[in-house]
Amino acid sequence: MATVTVSGSGNAQRRRGAGYKLSKLNIFGGVFGWLWLFIVMIPIYWIVITSFKTQANYFITNTFAPPSDPTMDNYKTVLDNEIVRYFLNSVVVTLGAVVPAVLISFMAAYAIIRGIGNRFLRLTNSLFLLGLAIPLQAVIIPVYLIIIRLKLYDTLLAIVLPSIAFAIPLSVLVLSNFIRDVPRELFESMRMDGATEWGTLWRLAFPLTRPALVTVTIYNALGIWNGFLLPLVLTQSADQRTIPLALVNFQGQFGVNTPAIAASITLTTLPIIILYAIGRRQLLSGLTAGFGK
Amino acid sequence: MTTLAPPAVRVQEPTTAKGGRSGSVVWMAIPALLMFIAFGVIPLLGVLGLSFTTWDGIGDIHPSGLDSWTATLKDPELPHAIWVTFEIMALSWLVQTPISILIGVFLAAFKKYRGFLAVLYFIPLLLSSAAISITYKALLDPNFGLGAGFGVEWLKQDWLGDSKLAVGVLIFVVSWQYIPFHSLIYQGAVRQIPTSMYEASMIDGAGRLRQFFSITLPQIKYTIITSSTLMVVGSLTFFDLIYVLTGGGPGNATRALALQMYQKGFMANLMGPASCIAVILVLAGVLLAQLLRRLGGRGDESQMEGV
Lengths: 293, 307
Hints:
The complex is a heterodimer.
Chain A: H1 2-7, H2 12-24, H3 27-50, H4 55-60, H5 73-80, H6 83-114, H7 119-131, H8 140-149, H9 156-180, H10 184-192, H11 197-208, H12 210-225, H13 229-234, H14 243-254, H15 258-288
Chain B: H1 5-15, H2 21-26, H3 30-50, E1 53-54, E2 62-63, H4 67-74, H5 77-109, H6 111-121, H7 123-126, H8 129-139, H9 146-150, H10 163-191, H11 195-203, H12 208-219, H13 221-235, H14 240-245, H15 257-267, H16 271-296, H17 300-304
Antiparallel strand pairs in B: 1-2
């Protein structure tokens, strides 16, 4: 083992050499990597091209042929069917849940790191860690009961409240790991300058934790935007429908009008793709960092 | 442990000259704690409580002792739902893990393609299960879907109408959705293996396959555990996908536990038995997570780090 460490003492040339050998080892991996990319892209390509086909065109042309006569009619159909309303519902639910969830998780994470040694905070932290193991599906019935008793059934708030709660455990875990890395001296100097903990939280920890905050925000937003079970169980009327539920309803409503269904999927996924393009780097590094240890 | 805690606090405060420090931050944890107790902890206790009652979801809740449990455990649909859940869990793990590792190792070695592939790989994770299910439902149409598009006769099957095929379709769609994510996790792990280990083994004359099996695989052991835990525990809660894609059918061929619970509770209005199934789900999740943790031989905290 000693010889290993000597021979691997950071020689760039050698490093590349080994990397190359490693890659040649992996022809199977390479084939799978590209093949899988192809498999991943087929449905996505199909949704986009189909959304521009007329219904007649869809039935007579090849599934994967681009539309011979591109049309925007499907988008018009979807827009005429209250999609804007469902979209706004999803925006309200997502923002209404993610913003408070991330803020209170951030405060809790700060408290847990700054108050190390406090028994109450340690218990709180253990409770959140335990919470990582609770699946939303398993507690949906009591959540439903609580929502009825609060007289919130069939409101957007009914979706928001449990969404906040179930975003907390993972958010606190990721954020506290980040706050732990802030050098202690920085907190010390803030304190010397007479800053309160509340001031330190916002002026020191918040800016330094920004990458983690972005990761956590996007991750939670994705989960809530795409959430299906809570809207399904806790709402009823069309007025309160969020996007995933609306998509399933469109599927019934449009029947064989597959191009319109494709248009509804394209239209509702576009904002997420844009969000992803903006926060991609942070999301990817944030999600994969730490897993490899 | 608890008896040790107070002295530790007392020692810490004077040395850092921050009397009352922890006291002044404690309140910041309260909002998150309250929210989580209200909609996480109380429902968890509530589901256990409700499993000993009879409730139709609208009217009053009546305590009924073990009635719901007896009904649930006697129900011939339960073993079937457990079997379907296990089938989906085992098969999706078997399909996803080797492919994810292979792709992960590939991505780790090819820096050139990594960024490009990572961007596109992530797209399935952006889509809702509802959107994915709807898309596949259309693509699997024997007349206008994949089969017709590629002109491959084999693809023109009644994919969602046959019990065996429907399970296969679920496994495929799950893999489509999650393999990219797991590949990215493995990619991160492989990149952390010291290059020197490969160099040393080359000097010892180890072949490439040998390197893969005696260096790469053992080195990413903990990642395999983490990724498997996410896959296995996650598969217990597949709901949206099955609900939209097959509705549990054909017949009850794909009716896994989570869907069984939903149908019992919110469609047959039997909240008591549905709660029993929910309790079984929680127990299965905790048990599986513990089992996999034992396999890894390490604490869960370090493995969950940075999820």
